[in-house]
Design a protein that fits this description.
444 residues; alpha/beta; UDP-N-acetylmuramoyl-L-alanine:D-glutamate ligase; Protein-Tyrosine Phosphatase, Chain A; 8-stranded mixed β-sheet; 7-stranded mixed β-sheet; 18 helices
C-alpha cells in the first residue's frame, strides 16, 4: 500500500536520527566526510554542477547565507539556499529562488520522495541525507549558485565536500565546546577547515585570539585570506549598519565583502541598488524565520486585554547572541515578559548575568531530550534574583505569559505603565514549539 508523504517522512526521521530528536548522540551526529562522499558519488557528484558559497561561524552564518542568496537572486542568478535547523517543516532547509525573482520556495515534496527512493543509504545521519538531497535538487534544478551553511564546525561537516567560489567565516564564539574545542582559537581552527586551495577565504574581522589561527591555516592550505572589516559599505548599507535597527545588520559588511570578492573573481554581476535592497529585505525574500521575527496572536488566542502585546521570537541561544537580543529588549522601553527555554549543554552561567532583571520570566522546557528541565531552569533564574514562573511546556509558558499580560500583572519595573512585549527564545526548539502551538500567525 502506498504511504502518504507524511508517513514517509515520519519513517525518515525514525531511520535517520537527527540532532533535533536525539541530541548529539552517536546515531544523530556523525562527523566526517566518508559517508557523505559515498552518497555524493552514488548521486553523481551533483555539487560539481553549480557554483557554491560556503559559510561557517558561531553566530550570524544563517543570516549571511540568506542575505547572500537574496543578493545573488537579485543579480539574476537562479540561487539555492541550504540552512539548518528547521522550525516546522524540514523542507525549510532547502530552498531556491523562484522564476521571476522576489521569493524563494521550498523543495517540492515530489523531489524529496524521488531522492529517498533512489539514495536513502543505511547508516546516514539525518543531516548527511538532507545535505545530499539539497545538492541533488540544486543540480537537477540547474541552479547557478547555492549558498550553503555548515551544520556544525566546518572541517568535518557534511557540507565540506564542496569546493566553493568563496569560503566565509562569520563570528567565532564559545558554543558546542565539547565537540569543537574549549577555546575560541580551537573553534576557529575547526571552522577554518572549510578553507580550500586557491579559494578566497573571508573572515568577519580580526581579533587577537582567532586571527593567528586564520593566518596560519590560510597559507598552509594555499588560499588568499581577506577580512570583511577592510571593505567599505555603500551609503544605503552603511546607514542600515549604523542604525543597528536589526541584529542581522551587523553582518552587512561580511555580505558586501563576499559579493565584492565574487565580482573580483570573475562572477559577472553589478552591485546595484536593487541588490542592496534585496540584502536588507533578505529574510522576507528567503522566508528565513525566527530572527527577531514579529508574531501576531491568532484570532482564537486573543486574550481579553485592551492592548495586544508586541510579540518577538528569536533562536539566539549562546551568550554573544543573547547579549545583543537582551540589550535590544531592554532598550525597547516596554514591560518585558519572556518565555525562555534552553538546552542543557548551553552556557547558562554565561547567560544569566545578561538577562533583563526587570522582566517577568516563564521558564519552559521545549520538546527535545536536550532541553534543560523547566524546574532546573526556574531554580537557576530564581537564584539569580529574577522573577520567574515554572511552566511544563512552551505552550503552557506562552499561555501563562498571555494571561499575565491580559491581567495587567504589575511587577517592579521602570516601565510599569508601558506597553507589553512578549519575547520567546533561548533555543531553536523553544521557538519551534511556539510556532507549532497554535497561538500565533507570522506578520513578517
Amino acid at each position: 500500500m502506498d504511504m502518504t508523504y507524511e508517513e514517509r517522512i515520519a519513517g525518515l526521521f525514525e531511520r535517520h536520527r537527527s540532532v533535533q530528536s536525539d541530541g548529539f548522540s552517536a546515531s544523530a551526529y556523525k562527523p566526517g566526510l566518508e559517508r557523505m562522499e559515498e552518497l555524493d558519488a552514488l548521486s553523481g557528484h551533483p555539487h560539481r554542477r553549480f557554483r557554491s558559497v560556503h559559510v561557517a561561524g558561531t553566530n550570524g552564518k544563517g543570516g549571511v547565507c540568506c542575505m547572500l542568496a537574496a543578493a545573488l537572486a537579485a543579480c539574476g542568478f537562479r540561487t539555492g539556499l541550504y540552512t539548518s535547523p528547521h522550525l516546522t517543516d524540514f523542507r525549510e532547509r532547502i530552498k531556491c529562488s523562484l522564476p521571476g525573482g522576489g521569493a524563494f520556495g521550498m523543495i517540492p515534496k515530489e523531489a524529496v520522495l524521488a531522492f529517498l527512493d533512489r539514495f536513502e543509504l543505511p547508516g546516514l545521519s539525518f543531516f548527511e541525507l538532507t545535505t545530499g538531497l539539497a545538492f541533488k535538487w540544486f543540480a537537477d534544478s540547474q541552479l547557478d549558485f547555492a549558498v550553503l551553511e555548515t551544520g556544525l564546525g566546518g572541517r568535518l561537516d557534511s557540507t565540506n565536500i564542496v569546493t566553493p567560489a568563496i569560503s566565509i567565516i562569520t563570528s567565532i564564539g564559545l558554543d558546542h565546546c565539547d565537540l569543537l574545542g574549549s577555546t575560541r582559537a580551537a573553534i576557529a581552527r575547526e571552522k577554518a577547515g572549510i578553507f580550500k586551495p586557491g579559494v578566497p577565504a573571508l573572515v568577519w574581522g580580526r581579533d587577537p585570539e582567532t586571527q593567528p589561527v586564520f593566518e596560519s591555516v590560510a597559507p598552509a592550505v594555499g588560499c588568499p585570506l581577506y577580512y570583511a572589516e577592510d571593505y567599505e559599505l555603500p551609503p544605503l548599507l552603511a546607514d542600515a549598519e549604523s542604525s543597528r535597527a536589526k541584529p542581522e545588520y551587523m553582518n552587512l559588511r561580511t555580505v558586501w565583502a563576499a559579493l565584492s570578492l565574487l565580482t573580483e573573481g570573475g562572477c559577472a554581476f553589478a552591485l546595484s541598488s536593487e541588490v542592496q535592497d534585496a540584502i536588507l529585505n533578505a529574510y522576507a525574500i528567503t522566508g528565513f524565520r525566527a530572527r527577531w521575527e514579529r508574531l501576531e496572536l491568532s484570532v482564537d488566542a486573543l486574550p481579553t486585554c485592551t492592548q495586544k502585546p508586541e510579540i518577538i521570537c528569536d533562536i539566539g541561544h549562546n551568550p554573544p547572541a543573547l547579549k545583543l537580543l537582551f540589550d535590544r529588549l531592554k532598550a525597547s522601553g516596554k514591560r518585558l515578559y519572556i518565555v525562555f527555554g534552553i538546552m542543557a549543554d548551553k552556557d547558562l552561567e554565561g547567560i544569566l548575568p545578561l538577562m533583563p532583571g526587570e522582566a517577568q520570566w516563564f521558564a519552559v522546557a521545549p520538546s527535545t531530550p536536550r532541553a534543560l528541565p523547566a524546574e532546573a531552569l526556574a531554580e537557576r533564574l530564581s537564584e539569580a534574583g529574577l522573577r520567574v514562573r515554572c511552566c511544563a511546556s512552551v505552550k503552557e509558558g506562552i499561555a501563562a505569559a498571555l494571561g499575565a499580560i491580559a491581567l495587567g500583572t504589575a511587577f517592579e519595573s521602570p516601565h510599569t505603565d508601558a506597553p507589553a512585549l512578549l519575547y520567546i527564545g533561548g533555543s531553536t526548539y523553544t521557538v519551534s514549539d511556539a510556532l507549532g502551538s497554535g497561538f500565533f500567525e507570522a506578520v513578517e
